[in-house]
Amino acid sequence: MPSSRPLLAAGLLSLSSAFSWAGPVAPTPITLNFNGVDTWSGSFTALSSGSNSFVLDLSPFAGMQLGGLTVLLSSNFLSSSGYDISSASFGGQAFKPLLDQTYPGLGGADLWLFSTSSWSPTPQLIQVTGQLLGGTVGFTGSVSLIAQPVPEPASYALLMLGLAGIAWVRRGRQADKLARLVHLPRP
Question: Which of 9, 94, 121, 149 is most buried, taking the most CB atoms under 10 A from its CB?
Fold first, then answer.
């Protein structure tokens, strides 16, 4: 009876090469949805300990006049369930922890914020590191992108009309002052 060791070794070798071929996990994409006049938003979540990576592709916004970009992470956890965030970054820049509170034996809450008005319209990597404590609740992230409103031509016309009105009233007042100084009746 032939030995099954070579067959077992070949199977283990092919299985190990399959796992090494898979490589690192690609970042999860974040989709931004248009919410109306001048905002886009999206959300993301994860349920694994360690580093979680997300990619926010801002290249569709190249050439647009856009303002602030805000990314908010939130998490609540008990002693045996939830997600405890330990760090977060956007394009290599660190998030600011607004709330990073742990109550020994009880749990805690995390609220981390990244906000900027200057960003590059390229794909940006968001990395969130933390520990899944158990259960089915991870952290939740939300992204908001706000456009800078561009005034319409009618707005400029109203501004010019208002400035012309102010100039006309001021000119009339100066004529009245001059007439009083010279004591001449105004025509």
Answer: 121
